[in-house]
TrEMBL record, chains A, B, C, D, E, F:
<keyword id="KW-0694">RNA-binding</keyword>
<keyword id="KW-0548">Nucleotidyltransferase</keyword>
<dbReference type="Pfam" id="PF01138">
    <property type="entry name" value="RNase_PH"/>
</dbReference>
<keyword id="KW-0808">Transferase</keyword>
<dbReference type="InterPro" id="IPR002381">
    <property type="entry name" value="RNase_PH_bac-type"/>
</dbReference>
<dbReference type="InterPro" id="IPR015847">
    <property type="entry name" value="ExoRNase_PH_dom2"/>
</dbReference>
<keyword id="KW-0698">rRNA processing</keyword>
<dbReference type="InterPro" id="IPR036345">
    <property type="entry name" value="ExoRNase_PH_dom2_sf"/>
</dbReference>
<dbReference type="InterPro" id="IPR050080">
    <property type="entry name" value="RNase_PH"/>
</dbReference>
<feature type="domain" description="Exoribonuclease phosphorolytic">
    <location>
        <begin position="13"/>
        <end position="141"/>
    </location>
</feature>
<dbReference type="GO" id="GO:0016075">
    <property type="term" value="P:rRNA catabolic process"/>
</dbReference>
<comment type="similarity">
    <text>Belongs to the RNase PH family.</text>
</comment>
<dbReference type="GO" id="GO:0031125">
    <property type="term" value="P:rRNA 3'-end processing"/>
</dbReference>
<keyword id="KW-0819">tRNA processing</keyword>
<dbReference type="InterPro" id="IPR027408">
    <property type="entry name" value="PNPase/RNase_PH_dom_sf"/>
</dbReference>
<dbReference type="InterPro" id="IPR018336">
    <property type="entry name" value="RNase_PH_CS"/>
</dbReference>
<comment type="function">
    <text>Phosphorolytic 3'-5' exoribonuclease that plays an important role in tRNA 3'-end maturation. Removes nucleotide residues following the 3'-CCA terminus of tRNAs; can also add nucleotides to the ends of RNA molecules by using nucleoside diphosphates as substrates, but this may not be physiologically important. Probably plays a role in initiation of 16S rRNA degradation (leading to ribosome degradation) during starvation.</text>
</comment>
Amino acid sequence: MSRPSQRQANEKRLVTITRNYTCHAEGSVLIEMGNTKVICTASVEDSVPRFLKGKGQGWITAEYGMLPRSTGSRMDREAARGKQSGRTQEIQRLIGRSLRAAVDLKALGENTITLDCDVIQADGGTRTASITGACIAMVDAIRSLQQRGVISGDPLLNMVAAISVGVYQGMPVLDLDYAEDSTAETDMNVVMDASGGMIEVQGTAEGVTFSRTEMNAMLDLAEKGIAELIEAQQQALNS
Amino acid sequence: MSRPSQRQANEKRLVTITRNYTCHAEGSVLIEMGNTKVICTASVEDSVPRFLKGKGQGWITAEYGMLPRSTGSRMDREAARGKQSGRTQEIQRLIGRSLRAAVDLKALGENTITLDCDVIQADGGTRTASITGACIAMVDAIRSLQQRGVISGDPLLNMVAAISVGVYQGMPVLDLDYAEDSTAETDMNVVMDASGGMIEVQGTAEGVTFSRTEMNAMLDLAEKGIAELIEAQQQALNS
Amino acid sequence: MSRPSQRQANEKRLVTITRNYTCHAEGSVLIEMGNTKVICTASVEDSVPRFLKGKGQGWITAEYGMLPRSTGSRMDREAARGKQSGRTQEIQRLIGRSLRAAVDLKALGENTITLDCDVIQADGGTRTASITGACIAMVDAIRSLQQRGVISGDPLLNMVAAISVGVYQGMPVLDLDYAEDSTAETDMNVVMDASGGMIEVQGTAEGVTFSRTEMNAMLDLAEKGIAELIEAQQQALNS
Amino acid sequence: MSRPSQRQANEKRLVTITRNYTCHAEGSVLIEMGNTKVICTASVEDSVPRFLKGKGQGWITAEYGMLPRSTGSRMDREAARGKQSGRTQEIQRLIGRSLRAAVDLKALGENTITLDCDVIQADGGTRTASITGACIAMVDAIRSLQQRGVISGDPLLNMVAAISVGVYQGMPVLDLDYAEDSTAETDMNVVMDASGGMIEVQGTAEGVTFSRTEMNAMLDLAEKGIAELIEAQQQALNS
Amino acid sequence: MSRPSQRQANEKRLVTITRNYTCHAEGSVLIEMGNTKVICTASVEDSVPRFLKGKGQGWITAEYGMLPRSTGSRMDREAARGKQSGRTQEIQRLIGRSLRAAVDLKALGENTITLDCDVIQADGGTRTASITGACIAMVDAIRSLQQRGVISGDPLLNMVAAISVGVYQGMPVLDLDYAEDSTAETDMNVVMDASGGMIEVQGTAEGVTFSRTEMNAMLDLAEKGIAELIEAQQQALNS
Amino acid sequence: MSRPSQRQANEKRLVTITRNYTCHAEGSVLIEMGNTKVICTASVEDSVPRFLKGKGQGWITAEYGMLPRSTGSRMDREAARGKQSGRTQEIQRLIGRSLRAAVDLKALGENTITLDCDVIQADGGTRTASITGACIAMVDAIRSLQQRGVISGDPLLNMVAAISVGVYQGMPVLDLDYAEDSTAETDMNVVMDASGGMIEVQGTAEGVTFSRTEMNAMLDLAEKGIAELIEAQQQALNS
């Protein structure tokens, strides 16, 4: 069995990270995982949502969207339909949860960082690319808060990155593109931090159930891929 | 460390399953997992959604809701607010996906079974109780289709059940109630079928990441709990 | 002419009232009128809507819903459709108005009691059963406010109950079930208090108009039925 | 006790009916009951709603609105708020039901008449004025269908009119204006047809319950008022 | 080429302005431009929108609507559809902008005037008639603020009026009615003040582009028409 | 008076046009006007909206959006708010109208081209940049229809481009950036085609009215700027 992209089972796609992609946001990153391209911006506000008022802590939240023609056939624009799909809401809840795991909300003070992840071109793995890219934009936003003297300590606990794994034609594989994702037997998204701790695991069988053995093989691939992504994040932040 | 409920780490709550709980639906089940109580009904319609028209297969879909005062403090009624929350949509997508894994949609013919899971009392684990209860209601609905001669084969592939596991004060535990769930370090929902195949795994770290070792311990507990639930389902169906 | 249920013209269905039906609400009642089953909960909040702020009085309000498969064929879930139907709004306005007539809002202090009436099984008369059941839940909520010392006096003026009457095949009858209701010439809902005062009368001709004589016969039946319901409420509260 | 308007207890306000008030609709009536002014238009469509397709009958439906500044203080525009209030929906359901009682839907053929009742100035009794005015607009629309040869028989069964009655400072009174309506102990809307048959009775106690005796006195007033309104309708149609 | 209405190219329709058309609003005008009839009311509130709080200035805003059967065939009611069309929003933004140009918002103090323009009969030019009529209603509302002593200076800078011009069958014409508007090659709405200053110009080619020469001819017509309308406004205000 | 950007009054910003910017759409253009950046995609569908079914013609329509942090401070995401603002609707109606003027809809056959204009970075003039960029994407989509043999003739009538002009500190200027636009006395958007025909003129006074002389000066600037943009479009299409 070979993969449509001819990649090795444990080979992820080429990652390209462009910081300061747009000019207004406190953090702005274009992340490309192969043909998947997502603009991740981090916006800082010096207040918190109502449910956190006066609790002496900050908040990290995320929103996700796809341009209508980021995909093979045009999707309805959610703003025109008047609501976000269940999928969109599920993804933006996942991104927000994952990035909150990277931050000490007390050390952030009563500030909110909103991460907007907008997919301009989709080829599988948009939610995991969003997490990986948004983490860098978030770090840039945190650094700007520090430089402006708004916060003194460092709320960043650990870098966070994410990747998808799956079982494709019986073979556990890393970083599925759309051609694989749309026919894979199992699709799993994994979020981890730089120390190897697990933050989210979401695995779904599509048509065929998966075994504990397959699950372990997928998690091994995810660990490898996430370590490489965290390396790429660090290089981008150091450049 | 002891659990608030004094249960053993691998001990699930008492399960009670009442079939034919209401009189109109083709399948109607009240499932109680301790103090969590969910009414699961299965409704049959002799048509399919537009995207499946003419494809010679059926469809399984789910909707989920909580009565406003099923919880400790009253929640807004989603019908009055005019939209379902992201959490609600995430849960009903999970229920639908899980139950589709139990069914051969071709053998169902061009029929739709809608599973309504309405929580009348909540004490943690409402989404997993919904899956476990809805599977029984779905079987009753499938049996009614067979008895009415609408379908000839048996679309049921395997019973499906679900349970939550987590890490509570450092200890992997089975079937968290609200007291545990609201303070657990990790919360994981697992859906499996009667043959032990995995259908969904959704694990989330809350504040502290989890390790591969903890993940394995949680999956062991889930396998045990789900086997017991499938036993309870069978007893209910045989009674 | 005989009724589908073989009941006498002036005979209401069996009423069963279960207090403390669910565990979280300040008042929680399952009321069954024959096959019609409604969960009525009363939730207390120590504030009032904006239009009453600072006026030294409380508020009683109601919401109503039907589980999608409480009826013979499945109805759309209002939360999924994104709005409550005109019928739902009409009913919840009626329930709220009726129960406010039972209470001295000044004596309630700046507290709000929200009555949620959720139909789990429908066989006609769901709005009147909701009023009769919600009144008991409301009394339990008022008693809890008194026991917690939040209010000193007694805001309860009078018990309130409701029943439907109609003209079925030319005969005035009490407490219509669905089989009668769906073909009756006239349908009338009556709300009264324990002293026999009238709170609401809503009569509608369906295809054939009704006369003053028929109206009087229906009101006589309603008076009898409501007196019996108030008796049943008292027994439930005393048990 | 005297009425704010100095009218006798059984004296209704001056009624003025202007047919052909606007030029596009098949029926267009401005009805004035004292200072209450409502534009009622009847629009004909040669089709029926989906639930009536192929059943060989027509449909009558109604919509109701108030201009934002038809009232003493400006109300939000429902189109801008994005939904109709419960009160609006209740009223338009009442208007539609009342006018369907005036028509043989079979004789109407597969045509729909939509009655739009838009209040341009409000001083109490807008829903009853809407019914009385819309009935005339509907007759004009039916006559246009007959003149165009679309229908051959006469679907009009009987003229329908409506008026409000109430108990004001202990005295049953006819046709309440806003000054009375806002402080009355009981408010009742009555819809009847030209033969004296009752179509709708909706009575509501506001703070004080009402007795059978008061109810009868109110219904006597309503019968008198509606007979006068039907007279006024006939004069308008004959002019 | 002659116009459907037989008017001269530079001849506008008959304008009729009725002040105090309804009784509740601080300003209420019925404006008729031929068969186009719009009720314009001005409502005063002693507060400003949130974005202006504490800035020591007032606000002018507008809302626009059409009765469903103001047009040749019935349109959906926007309140029932649950949203205002893009056209409606575009028009009400235009009306608000145009009238703000007539007022010194500082001199208005922290008061808001809301202009509701409701079309009861449409025959082309409803947005321009709305601006012309609303300006008079606004003046009446400003005068009432002055008479009540709420404001001392005069916030009115200049009267504002509007008219449509277009190219119809190659000929620049003034004040298009529906018969012309629906087939014109160019449609242009012009808003000016009493001193001849231009406030808004919105020209649109429909099928055929227009030239600078045609544009100038249209603007000449607009200047003439607006001067006549401002004359008519003054007469109405002086009567 | 000098411009914030130090540009000459008749000097537009640098224009950069990148074709094939994303990979899925039939036409995909990134247009940059200085710091304003808009992704314009053209999507082809082989059907038409309902109101054009069977009329033997095609349709061009447009949607517009801004990424939440395309601007200096983050805006709410319209998909999350559940509706498009009036400004958004106004702009997308303008884009659609403008591009329909460039096409012979009969020659397009029963196909629809949807133009999505998504602003990723905003610095004034986003609507005019959208029109200029979308026209190129539309041409690419039309060429793909011709290459696939779906249509035989050429529906493109003329290239269309747009630019903003205004009066800034008393001086007519071309192509306002945000610094100018936010304080200009007049803002005017002009759409023209390659033959110099005018398609749309939308001029708005902000605080100070404008004269016919200023209007003519602005239109002269617009003619110059649009000629240059059409030159740039041609170069991009030829490359």
